[in-house]
Q: What sequence folds into this?
């Protein structure tokens, strides 16, 4: 049972069935060979603390733990010298899921793939003794799952993922991220899963920018559906935005279809470019990609 | 302006579905999308140009309707003519030579094609009539091109050749009243030049072809009047086009009577020359209806070359002929006499007679006037009616004369003894005993009588008709051998003179055979035709292709515009 997470019971639907959990385990075992030494549970922390690895000395000040005094040094120099050790700290992994209605799109739904991928990441992270939190962007703070450590947290995370729905009220994605950042989360690894269809084309860069400014390491997973990237059949259409309910009358012809393709291409390229610019790991998948394949790709991030 | 095909205006109704499709296109399709980010520019474009879009839509609709209007007008084939259109008379040569296959599939089909082109080019309301040289009027004055086309397609080749005189004369008479134009579609091969009718004023449309042909030109039979003999005459002929190789094979003539082979012999075609004929006569026997057939085929030894023979033989129909010779007619004879073996045997020996004997005591019925009555030892009743009458040894007086008494003078005159059949017999050995001399009545018309009048041949008119009668004032059974032998000849001659039956000796000709068939070269030159028509004149002309392309364009344009593929 080394690092293996027990998955108990059912979580309401077939989103996380036993077969998927077994595939997560396969990915976890595979990840140990692929990313050995990179996503270990124990990580050095900037803060000094109790451990077996010596870091250095400093003068003792009030409030320091007297247990760390170097009595040999005191015997020699009659000064209170405090021994410093590197404190090992587990990694905080924040799983951000875009719960806007645009994620409830495609067949299979983008939201389902996103939840499965996050479930897999949670499984692997908890197995690696990391602290994992789940933040459904756009929903109320009560539905946030703060970071917890321990393999027994996995069922609770799965339940949260299962009961999460893509029904967030219309709003900016960057604003939702901003709301979460105001809770002052610990620095760590933020994995944001979204289609990055915000209220404007500038929403996606803003999300990554704010996360980086908050000192987080960011991994961005963009989930898109093939059918939403292709123009519809020619003719006159009235398109209704599933998030805002706004409608637009559009005449689809060769030119407008080509303009649509150009805008989509530009959007995808700019999202990827901004992610590179802000040193964010980036991966784009479509809704037909198997979750374990997405997980393997995420685990291969440098 | 008139239209050649006004019915195509019905296609104008296609405008209704076009308009309906435009109206139904007004409703845009509702669709929910995950984001409108990518449609921002396009949406503004539509909203800003909605008015122009509406105008452009209706302009496009009007343009398409206009195009449809022109398209239908083109299909209706407008004709712009200032001079009044003259009616047209189409004369199709349907003689047997039009079966020649040197023009595919045959000359008549080529003539029909050419005539149909003419029909298609007739302006709307222009009347036409279609004749064949049979002659037959296939359709009278009509401006319905459907009727005219059907009439042209209805024409069939005749089974025999004929001259077009009657049809052309009829066409000219028909054309006089209306100043009609006459178009004569022919291969120029006629059974005699239409000398009786001038070709002036007739537009010849010559179906040009070059053909060699071998076939029967005549099959005739003639029955003998008094016997069962039938003489059969067969004539075969060859004709060769100067531009074609000669017919290479000998031909075998097979003559059959009622399916039984009568004769078979080889008939070699000429080594050179453009025309040659071959004639032979056979004699067959049959008193009944008989079928004579002659067939000119390829000998079995050359069966492998049949294909080549067929290809050089332009008209296959004349390779075989059939005729039916009717049965020999017999004159019905009623013998009213007591039993007389000689008389009955003599009548039985005459092949064209069919007699029955009744007793003088039996009641007589004269229902059929087409009979010869022979009374021996008896007199006909007063109301007697018949076509002919022979009275042998009449027992009393009558219309034929008054009994004078036994004949004493010789009944053969010196002149008759020296001339005629009587000179061949020794009449001194031919005593006619018990002969009676008669004196004809004044009202009886006597054609001939013997000396002493034991034999009177005359005619009278008792009941309106004028039957002929013959009185033999002696009994043949009581005469010598020569007279007895001459008696059947006398009766047979008398019967023939009565003409009680149709002449079965008239010649019978097989239909469909004519010397003209072997002369497949036209009797008129191509330069005489006023407007040559190609053998393969296209019926589907270029404008029809253009119309088809236009229809395709309309639908493609509509589809593309409707799908917003074009602006």
A:
């Amino acid at each position: 049972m080394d690092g293996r997470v027990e998955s108990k019971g059912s979580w309401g639907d077939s989103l996380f069935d036993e077969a998927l959990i077994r595939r997560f385990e396969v990915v976890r075992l595979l990840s140990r060979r692929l990313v050995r030494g990179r996503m270990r549970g124990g990580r050095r922390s900037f803060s000094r603390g109790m451990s077996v690895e010596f870091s250095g000395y400093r003068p003792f000040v009030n409030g320091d733990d007297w247990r760390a005094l170097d009595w040999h040094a005191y015997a020699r120099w009659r000064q209170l010298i405090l021994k410093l050790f590197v404190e090992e700290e587990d990694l905080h992994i924040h799983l951000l899921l875009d719960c806007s209605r645009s994620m409830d799109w495609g067949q299979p739904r983008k939201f389902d793939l996103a939840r499965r991928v996050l479930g897999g990441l949670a499984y692997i992270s908890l197995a690696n003794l990391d602290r994992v939190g789940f933040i459904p962007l756009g929903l109320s703070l009560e539905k946030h799952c703060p970071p917890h450590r321990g393999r027994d947290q996995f069922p609770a995370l799965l339940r949260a993922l299962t009961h999460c729905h893509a029904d967030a009220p219309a709003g900016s994605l960057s604003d939702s991220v901003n709301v979460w950042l105001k809770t002052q989360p610990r620095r760590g690894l933020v994995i944001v899963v979204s289609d990055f269809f915000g209220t404007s084309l500038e929403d996606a860069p803003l999300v990554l920018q704010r996360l980086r400014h908050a000192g987080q390491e960011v991994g961005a997973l963009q989930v898109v559906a093939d059918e939403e990237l292709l123009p519809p059949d020619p003719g006159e259409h009235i398109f209704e935005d599933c998030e805002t309910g706004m409608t637009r009358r559009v005449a689809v012809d060769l030119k407008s279809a080509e303009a649509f393709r150009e805008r989509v291409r530009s959007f995808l390229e700019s999202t990827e470019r901004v992610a590179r610019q802000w040193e964010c790991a980036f991966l784009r998948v479509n809704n037909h990609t198997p979750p374990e394949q997405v997980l393997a790709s995420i685990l291969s991030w440098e | 302006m008139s239209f050649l095909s006004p019915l195509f205006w019905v296609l104008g109704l296609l405008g209704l579905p076009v308009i309906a499709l435009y109206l139904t296109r007004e409703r845009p399709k509702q669709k929910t999308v995950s984001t409108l980010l990518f449609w921002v520019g396009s949406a503004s474009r539509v909203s800003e140009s909605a008015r122009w879009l509406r105008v452009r839509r209706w302009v496009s609709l009007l343009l398409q309707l206009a195009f449809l209007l022109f398209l239908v007008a083109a299909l209706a084939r407008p004709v712009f003519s200032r001079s009044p259109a003259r009616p047209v008379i189409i004369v199709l040569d349907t003689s047997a030579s039009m079966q020649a296959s040197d023009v595919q599939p045959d000359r008549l089909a080529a003539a029909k094609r050419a005539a149909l082109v003419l029909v298609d080019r007739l302006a709307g309301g222009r009347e036409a009539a279609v004749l064949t040289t049979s002659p037959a009027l296939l359709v009278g004055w009509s401006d319905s091109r459907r009727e005219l086309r059907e009439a042209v397609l209805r024409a069939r080749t005749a089974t025999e050749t004929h001259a077009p005189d009657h049809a052309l004369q009829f066409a000219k008479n028909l054309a006089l009243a209306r100043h009609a134009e006459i178009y004569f579609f022919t291969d120029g091969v006629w059974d005699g030049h239409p000398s009786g009718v001038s070709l002036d004023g007739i537009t010849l449309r010559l179906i040009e072809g070059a053909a060699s042909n071998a076939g029967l030109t005549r099959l005739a039979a003639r029955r003998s009047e008094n016997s069962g003999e039938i003489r059969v005459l067969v004539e075969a002929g060859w004709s060769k086009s100067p531009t074609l190789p000669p017919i290479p094979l000998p031909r075998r003539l097979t003559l059959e009577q009622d399916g039984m082979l009568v004769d078979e012999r080889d008939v070699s075609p000429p080594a050179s020359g453009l025309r040659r004929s071959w004639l032979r006569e056979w004699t067959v026997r049959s008193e009944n209806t008989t079928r004579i057939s002659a067939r000119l085929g390829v000998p079995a030894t050359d069966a492998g070359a049949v294909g080549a023979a067929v290809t050089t033989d332009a008209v296959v129909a004349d390779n075989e002929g059939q005729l039916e010779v009717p049965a020999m007619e017999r004159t019905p004879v009623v013998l009213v006499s007591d039993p007389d073996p000689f008389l009955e045997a003599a009548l039985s020996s005459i092949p064209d007679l069919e007699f029955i004997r009744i007793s003088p005591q039996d009641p007589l019925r004269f229902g059929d006037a087409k009979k010869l009555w022979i009374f021996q030892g008896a007199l006909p009743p007063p109301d007697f009616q018949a076509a002919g009458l022979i009275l042998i040894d009449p027992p009393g007086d009558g219309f034929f004369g008054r009994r004078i008494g036994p004949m004493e003078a010789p009944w053969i005159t010196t002149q008759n003894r020296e001339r005629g059949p009587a000179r061949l017999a020794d009449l001194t050995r031919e005593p006619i005993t018990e002969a009676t001399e008669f004196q004809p009545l004044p009202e009886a018309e006597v054609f001939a009588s013997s000396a002493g009048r034991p034999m009177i041949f005359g005619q009278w008119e008792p009941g309106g008709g004028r039957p002929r009668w013959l009185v033999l004032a002696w009994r043949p059974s009581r005469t010598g051998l020569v007279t007895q032998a001459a008696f059947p000849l006398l009766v047979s001659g008398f019967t023939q003179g009565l003409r009680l039956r149709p002449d079965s000796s008239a010649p019978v000709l097989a239909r469909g055979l004519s010397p003209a068939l072997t002369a497949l070269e036209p009797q008129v030159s191509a330069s005489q035709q006023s407007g040559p028509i190609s053998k393969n004149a296209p019926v589907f002309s270029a404008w029809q292709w253009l119309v088809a392309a236009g229809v395709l364009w309309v639908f493609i344009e509509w589809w593309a515009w409707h799908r917003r593929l074009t602006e």
